[in-house]
From TrEMBL:
GO terms for biological process: transmembrane transport. The keyword Transmembrane helix applies. Residues 297-323 are annotated as: Disordered. The chain crosses the membrane at residues 9-28, 59-79, 102-131, 181-204, 361-393, 405-423, 448-471, 491-515, 535-554. This is Transporter arsB isoform X1. It holds the Pfam family CitMHS. GO terms for cellular component: plasma membrane. Residues 27-501 form the Citrate transporter-like domain.
Length: 556
């Protein structure tokens, strides 16, 4: 395709340049409107500048990809409600054998979870949990956050539903779910293990510090309880009604003791003169008991008859002087709330049974969706069908669930499709590819290496999804001239390299930014993962993992 007219090329470059700036730097000072608005702005400029017609703009939106994204989002929401990610988090700390074992588990769990539930979702729900586990074990958060971000990116390369660029590749190439999995899964396994080995070598000294040192307490943040670690959020302790009493006067609730002969008659006369029907009267009784016998070392018991039913019921106050004084009220008339509480207790087993059945149904539907994908059924409609079945199974208004769908991401994709298609119509991507194509054929080692470098750089400059949209059909057409198998390999190479390229820099992948922001905003144990700390590890890891994975993908 030759270059378009000069005005069309210039205006198309301006529109695409604005889109690129907003996509890579969503909070630029001159227009901090975010990626979604920047994507729509680029699409609008492409139409206003007449680089692309309105009809072609609508046709550029790939509805199968949008449908697949929507379906996987809804399924992920239901899996999160069914505590799937909580169970994955518990798996990280279950019988952990130390810091190195924990780091290895983070790599494995995040990689496999990302392959099934998308890397962005896993990073959102696991970042805070990993910070809590690191705090519990007095470990530095940096290696575990890097393990989560990098392993999620590598793991997501294994399936078409692992990340957005794989969705695009699967739809554009027509490669089935099973073929995609067989082509990249071995490379993913080796890549995750290699990345874990690099992490262990890089942070070996940090992870070898003993938790318990002789003669002192270990340095680092305070250890949290296990039950706090198994939850995704810290919750304040609930205060019971006993807390309304003065802790200096009431220490514990004890069983009534046998009545003593040393009953204080003045206290009895005082208490008989009134009916104790509220907590205020109880407080008054406590004060009277404390004031009348502060020096007694014996246990005193007072009986208070109820004026409403003489002799029928009584209230006993028990006080122990060995610790702080304790007050007991016994044989109180049954309150109307007690029957309601019994009914609620009876309903608990039934509710638990319903929740268990609902969770099982969610897992079975998700498993059925994965089996249907492996059988080669249409991926978009399979995901949408699974989402609709889950919504119907919930048997409630679907609005609350659908509000959690990231519609901003769907709109971002729509704008990006239009913007990239308009940029393609300028002829610039095709002209640049014609200069590189003769040297980047995948029938030679040098060609594969050059193609990988081009994808690696462009994925970090223009982001991985636009890179796939710009290079996908061109790389496939070049490989198709060699053989049909080469075309499939070219798509898989593009999927592998564009995904692992996200580990190069902090800005290379949305999953990296999610981990960084989630860690920074954590309420009690925030951590700032800087650009340079990520880069120092990301560069060697990305180069080594990409090279090893390419050897496996090519040999498929």
């Amino acid at each position: 395709m030759a270059l378009a007219g000069t005005s069309k090329v210039v205006l198309g470059c301006i529109a695409f340049g604005i889109f690129w700036v907003m996509a890579v730097f969503p909070t630029v000072p001159f227009m901090p409107v975010g990626r979604t608005a920047g994507s729509l702005l680029g699409a609008m400029l492409m139409v206003l500048f007449r680089v692309i017609s309105p009809e072609d703009a609508y046709a550029a939106i790939d509805l199968p990809i949008i449908g697949l994204l929507f379906g996987t989002m809804v399924v992920s929401i239901f899996l999160e409600r069914a505590d799937m990610f909580k169970y994955l988090g518990n798996l990280l700390s279950w019988k952990s054998r130390g810091s190195k074992d924990l780091l290895f588990r983070v790599c494995i769990v995040s990689a496999f979870a990302s392959a099934l539930f998308t890397n962005d979702t896993c990073c959102v729900v696991l970042t805070e949990f990993i910070l809590k586990v690191a705090r519990q074990n007095n470990l530095p958060p940096q290696p575990f956050l890097l393990a989560l971000a990098t392993s999620s990116n590598i793991g997501s390369a294994a399936t078409p539903i692992g990340n957005p660029q794989n969705l695009v590749i699967a739809v554009e190439s027509g490669i089935s779910f099973g073929q995609f999995l067989l082509g990249i899964f071995p490379a993913m396994i080796v890549g995750v293990l290699t990345n874990a080995a690099i992490l262990l070598l890089y942070f070996w000294k940090y992870l070898s510090v003993e938790k318990d040192q002789e003669g002192g307490q270990p340095e680092g943040p305070e250890v949290v309880a296990d039950d706090e670690v198994t939850s995704h959020r810290f919750t304040p302790a609930r205060m019971s009604h006993v807390s309304s009493l003065n802790p200096d006067d009431v220490d514990c609730i004890s069983e009534p003791i046998i009545r003593s002969n040393s009953v204080n008659t003045s206290v009895n006369e005082n208490l008989r003169s009134r009916s104790i029907n509220s907590e205020a009267d109880i407080q008054l009784a406590i004060k009277s008991l404390r004031a009348s016998s502060m020096s007694h070392e014996m246990v005193e018991v007072s009986t208070v008859p109820d004026r409403r039913d003489e002799g029928a019921s009584s209230r006993k106050f028990t006080r122990t002087a060995s610790q702080q004084r304790s007050v007991i009220i016994e044989d109180l008339p049954p309150s109307p709330e007690s029957n309601g509480e019994k009914e609620k207790e009876a309903e608990v087993p039934e509710k638990r049974w319903k929740i268990l059945v609902w969770k099982t149904a969610v897992y079975l539907i998700t498993l059925g969706m994965l089996i249907a994908l492996l059988m080669g059924l249409n991926m978009s409609w399979t995901a949408i069908t699974a989402a609709l079945v889950l919504l119907a199974l919930d048997f409630t208004d679907a609005q609350a669930c659908l509000e959690k769908v990231s519609y901003s991401l769907l709109i971002f994709f729509c704008g990006m499709f239009i913007t990239v298609d308009g940029f393609n119509k300028t002829g610039i991507p095709n002209t640049l590819w014609e200069l590189v194509e003769p040297y980047s054929r995948i029938d030679s080692a040098k060609g594969v290496a050059l193609l990988a470098v081009v994808i690696l750089i462009l994925s970090n400059v223009a982001s991985n999804v636009p890179t796939v949209l710009l290079l996908g059909t061109r790389v496939a057409a070049s490989a198709a001239a060699i053989s049909h198998d080469s075309e499939r390999k070219a798509w898989l190479i593009l999927a592998w390299v564009s995904t692992v390229a996200g580990n190069l820099t902090l800005l290379g992948s949305a999953a990296n930014l999610i981990v960084c922001e989630q860690a920074r905003r954590a309420q009690f144990f925030g951590y700032n993962l800087t650009f340079w700390s990520h880069l120092r590890f990301g560069v060697p890891s990305t180069i080594v993992v990409t090279a090893i994975g390419l050897l496996i993908v090519i040999s498929y």
